[in-house]
Amino acid sequence: MRASLLQIDVNDGESVDSRRRRVAALVREQAGVDLIVLPELWTTGAFAYESFGTEAESLEGPTFEVMAKAASDAGTWLHAGSIPERDADGTLYNTSLVFTPSGDLAAAYRKIHRFGFDKGEAVLMGAGGELVTVRLPETTLGIATCYDLRFPELFRGLVDAGAETLVLSAGWPERRRSHWTLLAQARAVENQAFVLACGTAGTHADVPQAGHSIVVDPWGEVLAEAGAGEQVLTVDFDPGKVATTREQFPALKDRMLGLTAPRR
């Protein structure tokens, strides 16, 4: 299976419409791969909080239309990263879109863990409440977004739902890049799954981005890693390695579930 992670440069000097057109062209250039992955909130920038409301769109808004067409033109599965979605009731969500090779919407995932503590995304956006998996011919994807990477129970839930390849879109800051690499490898090892983690490059809202999109195999080995700038990271991997790894080293079978806190 061949996947391309499009590590998009997101900066304040490019309009949202211009970036949509540019990214759609990049998607079309990847025709022939099995899966394309884009970063989190690449239209606005993950830290451009003031743009969330002004650039928010409905689920089937401009980015949906452009990316659906690009997926169809390329004839490939497309995880189109995430958009600031405005629901019918006015609530904003950080929502990822996954398209089939014919351009149909296969799934939408609203980010569960919102970053910012008492500001930014955490207060401007609503939290999703559902795990999302997508069945491809070769593997089952488990979908997550950026800050989700710090919460292993989410990925355990995705594995229990059948995920074999964990796909993460992110706008991860450069100052915490070491966490990005460490956690991507940890999620791969503990879940015995591939991790495809695609981040942004550039600087937006004065926050330099980490870049360094990464693909990790079920043993925690890094198969490919991007640099800091805009880059298309393409990698071949064997989805069958997940079943082999879980059979050879059946650690998932030894989980102790339903543990209770000690009495005090």
Automatic annotation (TrEMBL):
PROSITE patterns: CN_HYDROLASE, UPF0012. One of its GO terms (molecular function) is hydrolase activity. It comes from the Bacteria. Residues 1-239 form the CN hydrolase domain. Keywords: Hydrolase. Pfam families: CN_hydrolase. The keyword Hydrolase applies. The keyword Transmembrane helix does not apply. Belongs to the carbon-nitrogen hydrolase superfamily. NIT1/NIT2 family. This is Hydrolase.
